[in-house]
Specification:
CATH topology of the largest domain: Elongation Factor Tu (Ef-tu), domain 3
CATH architecture of the largest domain: Beta Barrel
Shape: globular
Order of helices and strands: EEEEEHEEEEEEHEH
Distance between the termini: 27 Å
Structural class: mainly beta
Radius of gyration: 17 Å
Largest sheet: 6 strands, antiparallel, barrel
Number of strands: 12
Length: 205
């Protein structure tokens, strides 16, 4: 479980192809704080750490990426040297600064437009049609693992305003028109829709 508040930017050190795809990620995380088998969000996708070792002032950790994750996220496009948003899993008692994020990417969106205004970033993103009903104005959505508030919705497209701090501490500042991004809709919206569908009257109980 995560909150969509990025705690570091990782660098892809290497990728290993094969029956199981592995990626080595460099970060500023202290190696003794990363337990084998723990979960870390990478651009919004929850991945399990299978090895960790010290590296400079931080660490290198290795994750395995399943075929399902490769098919449903942008991780299949990772290249050595690329950067990724990282978030450690939520601990009981931690501040919930964003919203509840599971690290289960629902689909891949496309940046339709970017506008920069006095340090602020405006993005318009197209979501897959199947996700449009879960995206609401002033609701929450995770974009590449970052918790954001939806400013407006038009069909399957939605608008975001990125504050200067968020742009500075995540990879969102690098997004340009045509970029593909991982999307996770608000889990509360997903469950509300499911309850409505399962109700005989079509309404949530």
């Amino acid at each position: 479980m995560f909150t969509g508040i990025v705690t570091g930017i990782g660098r892809i050190v290497s990728l290993e192809e094969g029956p199981v795809r592995r990626a080595v990620i460099a970060s500023a995380y202290a190696p003794d704080t990363i337990a084998l088998g723990c979960s870390i969000s990478h651009d919004g996708a929850c991945l399990t750490v299978v090895s960790v070792e010290p590296a400079g002032a931080g660490s290198h950790h290795t994750v395995e990426i399943s075929p399902e994750t490769l098919a449903r996220t942008t991780l299949g496009g990772w290249r050595a040297g690329g950067q990724v948003n990282l978030e450690r899993s939520l601990k009981v008692g931690d501040e919930l600064g964003g919203h509840i994020v599971q690290g289960h990417v629902d689909g891949v969106g496309e940046v339709l437009a970017r506008t920069d205004e006095n340090g602020w970033m405006r993005l318009r993103v197209a979501a897959p049609a199947s996700l449009a009903r879960f995206i609401a104005e002033k609701g929450s959505i995770a974009v590449d693992g970052v918790s954001l508030t939806v400013n407006a919705v038009e069909g399957a497209a939605f608008d975001l305003m990125i504050i200067p701090h968020t742009a500075a501490v995540t990879t969102l500042s690098r997004l340009q028109t045509g970029a593909r991004v991982n999307l996770e809709v608000d889990v509360m919206a997903r469950y509300a829709a499911r309850l409505s569908e399962s109700s005989p009257s079509g309404n949530a109980p």
